[in-house]
Amino acid sequence: MDYIAELKDKGAAAKLAARKLSVASADIKDKALAAMADALENFRTDILAANSIDIENGKTKGLSKALIDRLLLNDSRINAMAEGLRQIAALPDPIGEGLGTKRRPNGLEISKVRVPLGVIGIIYEARPNVTVDAVGLCLKSGNAVLLRGGSEAINSNLAIINVITRAAYSAGVADGAIQFIETTDRQAVNAMLKLNEYLDVIIPRGGAGLIKTVVDNSSVPVIETGIGVCHTFVDESADLTMAQAIAYNAKVSRPGVCNAMETLLVHKAVADQFLPGMLKQYHEAGVELRGCPLTVLQHQGVKHATDEDWATEYHDLILAVKVVSDLDEALNHIAKYGTRHSEAIVTKNYDNARRFQQEVDAAAVYVNASTRFTDGFEFGFGAEIGISTQKIHARGPMGLTELTSVKYIISGDGHIRS
Amino acid sequence: MDYIAELKDKGAAAKLAARKLSVASADIKDKALAAMADALENFRTDILAANSIDIENGKTKGLSKALIDRLLLNDSRINAMAEGLRQIAALPDPIGEGLGTKRRPNGLEISKVRVPLGVIGIIYEARPNVTVDAVGLCLKSGNAVLLRGGSEAINSNLAIINVITRAAYSAGVADGAIQFIETTDRQAVNAMLKLNEYLDVIIPRGGAGLIKTVVDNSSVPVIETGIGVCHTFVDESADLTMAQAIAYNAKVSRPGVCNAMETLLVHKAVADQFLPGMLKQYHEAGVELRGCPLTVLQHQGVKHATDEDWATEYHDLILAVKVVSDLDEALNHIAKYGTRHSEAIVTKNYDNARRFQQEVDAAAVYVNASTRFTDGFEFGFGAEIGISTQKIHARGPMGLTELTSVKYIISGDGHIRS
To answer: Where do the Aldehyde dehydrogenase domain residues begin and end (chains A, B) (predicted)?
Structure first.
């Protein structure tokens, strides 16, 4: 089947199923999620066999060690995927929630209720666990899903989809609600981005290149996720011991994720006192440092940061460091280079804390805490499909609620408009 | 100035102003709205003089009478624009509203608060009153705005913008918060759709052609508005007198707006009883009728409806009529041809009312009321920027709240993630 036909067929099937899934009870959805979890465990041999083909192909193609690790499935990762589905099943069903009813002066009763988005397109890269996560979250929120995974994981994904769709449909989920694009032709992504007839939204999950392609080319509404050029600003009044712990955690605890810090901003009044110990700790952790002229001048082993450095999400043990004259310079730097993901200030000054929280335009704005907390689990949402860095629809960690829309239900007694 | 330079300059100025406007108090915004209203009234001579140029140009170009009427300003329309701004000033400020705070087990305090979207791009057609409406709603919700109006209204729009920006800036609104694109080159629209660096969202207001251009080509997030192929389904159990009043109101009271009905669906069991009187009433109101084969066969003066008819928003005194065998056929027809705007059922049957409300996928789903009520004022929002027909961000009438985003403000005491 050519990929255009595949996309249209699967899009249409998903849209048809979405109508049924939108009114499915929480009972059916939760039973399906439990059945999918059991199936992943019971058919792990099939999944691992398929995964080993992807791993072999990846090694032949010379994929990096990091990519191979992302691709790899094993018993504990399959257990974690199953556990993830059970956790989603345990969350409250967002659908049908009443968001307020009002009776208008003419007696018309208007209720706002939470409904599914419809059909969600997900475009993602190497990790096969995203397949399970995405299907679980979409299903629980009453949405049909059209998935496009990375070509490196095609065999793993097909095995997983085969196992979980059978389990879901047997448990009563509308046939067709889970669709996976089998062609690995890159053109299929471009065609998917124009599938307005069947898709209500597309959520890209992956690196900056993928996200830019989707944002630039999609005529389907997009929720942009995950690019984080996050800053920590150490203010003049900061508790420097606290600042060191936060700045270390934000960079080093997991440098490959979007809520990790990429640039450290330090007030000039405390730079001499703060930076020597801080940079030493980074050196010891193997962090490569790139600094502003002052930082380079005063500290050994710091390279010159270019303008590009300030705008780069390293995803790695690399950090840009800049000494600033005051809060305003920090705010301006963040406004210019930040990606509106997560930003932190370490301070004891009430006014500065308040200004930072009010004036920084980002999904999550921290006082005296690490940017690493921007995460669905840490925020208490139970699970997330990604971190939105745009302003419309959803911002920050996107849990089940963020995968819904609303509708107005209006009850009258023959009301006509004058 | 070439249009690319104009767009970038004005986009950058709007973005800079948006930072200041996002923290402006309600007092300043409301005083500015009042000052803008006064200025419209005080400088009405200038505005009417500019408008008369547009009207003359329009007549020379041979614009239709309807278009000329949309373009025309007079004393009462200027009063209405001023009154609209005063009504917006009287609404509560949505910005800064707390949407819940939680204390996580580790003591981290996470608050969700309402913030402006940032910079809103509005692309619209002939009506100059949209200029005032859009600026008023964006300003009150703390957003900077970049406007692109129709070339026919360019002189009127420039005069209006001149008057209201001076008033707004004198009242303390951040300089640059209101931007209007002066070039009437159509290419400017395409360039605006790629202005991701400065725009947070684009809202098109106009006909189907404009909206399709924006949706198809914008890499800036779009909120799709206003296309309404709305249906009324007269069920077997309907009170036929009520059904006739509702179906007449939905089509005839104002056929040129998006919440007007375009297709009437009638249950076959009541078609013989209902249609003769109904169609007679439409004939008398000058409504052109296009019907399914059965309707054409049984009633005089009804043309054959084509497949295109079922999908057309006539915006006129034209109605498509179809006899259906049951609720399921009505639901399937609406799912196939509806634009998810407003849909109505007239029925006395509880189960059918409930199924219709649950299963129809539309912004507003009515039982025993006219679709004409889908409107910001009728919903009690006080004013609206348009009716969203997409699923993400906002659905149905968009008031001030729908012009906002959220952010998370997190307060810690040195929290780091383990």
So the answer is: 12-284
